[in-house]
Amino acid sequence: MSRFQTLIAVGLAIVPLGLYLVGIGCLHLRRRPSLLQGSLDFALLAAGVAGLVLVGPLALLAPLADGIPSVAGVPVLLAGFLLLVAVAVLAMRPRLVIYNITLDQLRPVVAEVVAGLDASARWAGETAALPARGIQVHLDGRGSMRSVSVVAVGSRTSPEGWTEFSRRLRQAVGRLRVRSSPWGGLFGGLGGIVLVAAISLALGGLLLPRRSAPALSSPQPRPPASPASGASHDPPHRPVCA
Q1: How far is the C-alpha of 157 from the C-alpha of 16, rounded, in Å?
Q2: pLDDT tens, residue by residue, 8-19
Q3: pLDDT tens-place string over residues 177-235
Q4: What residue spans of the chain are helical by DSSP H?
Q5: Which superfamily does CATH assign the domain made up of 93-178 to?
Q6: Degrees (nearest 5) of the Cα angle 48, 53, 56?
Q7: Radius of gyration of the chain from Cα atoms?
C-alpha cells in the first residue's frame, strides 16, 4: 500500500471513533442523565471502532488488489463485522446504561421504581428481586466515570416485566437534574482531536500525489577540450637513415 493510500485509509478509519467520543462527551455535558438500551450502547461503540477494525485485523482477511483491499472484499468484511456485532447483542443480558449519574444518585430512583412495580420486592446489596414481575436487576456502577449499568440477572427474565421496568425507569431518570460531568469536556476534546487528525491525514493523503519530484537534468556530453594556445606539440617524426 502506498503512502498516500495509507494516510487516507487511516484518516477515514478514525472518523467514527472521533464522532463516538464527541457523542459521549455531549451526553456527559447534559444537565439530565441519558438512558440508553444496552444493545444501542454496544452498537454505537461497535460503530465507533468499526473503521479501525476494518483497516486493521479484518483487512488481513480481505483479498488484495494492487496492495489495497479489493472492492469486492470490503462489503464482505463489513457484513462479517455486522454479523459479529449482531451475535454479541443477542448473547448479552438485557441492560440499561445511564450516563452522567452516580450510583448513589441512581439507587433511590431505582428503589422507587421497584417499589411501584412490586410491593414484595427484596434487596440484597445492589440487586433487587421482583418476584411478581419475574425479573431481578443489578446496579453496576463504574466508579468515577459517572455512568451506571442496570443489568437483568437471574436464570429467567420476563420480557414484559423488563419492558415495564425500563419504561418506568426512563421516565424517572428523565425528571432528574444533575450537574455536567467533567468527563464531558475530556471526551469531547479527545474526540475533536481525533477528528482534526483524521481530516489532516485525509488531506495529506490527497495532496501527497500532487507533489511531483523535480526532474533530474540529464548530463550533457562535454565537448572535447581544444588544445590550449602556446601549448607544445610532439616533435615531428624524423625518418631514420638507412
Answers
A1: 34
A2: 778 888 999 999
A3: 999 998 999 999 999 999 999 988 888 777 765 544 444 444 555 555 555 544 445 55
A4: 3-13, 15-29, 38-55, 73-91, 103-117, 159-174, 182-207
A5: Kinase associated domain 1, KA1 (3.30.310.80)
A6: 140
A7: 35
Residue 219: what are its φ and ψ, rounded to 5°?
A: -65, 135
Amino acid at 97: V
Task: Give the global pTM.
Answer: 0.77
Structural domain boundaries of the chain?
1-92+180-210, 93-178
- Give the SS3 label for residue 177: coil
Extract the C-alpha cell encoding 136: 431481578
- For 16-57, the pLDDT digits (tens) are 999 999 999 999 999 999 999 999 999 999 999 988 887 776
Structural contact between residues 172 and 109, judged by C-beta atoms closer than 8 angstroms: yes
Helix (H) or strand (E) holding 218: none
In angstroms, the first-to-last Cα distance of the chain is 82
Instruction: Dig out the grid coordinates for 237 from the structure.
Output: 617524426
Q: Name 65's bridge partners.
A: 68
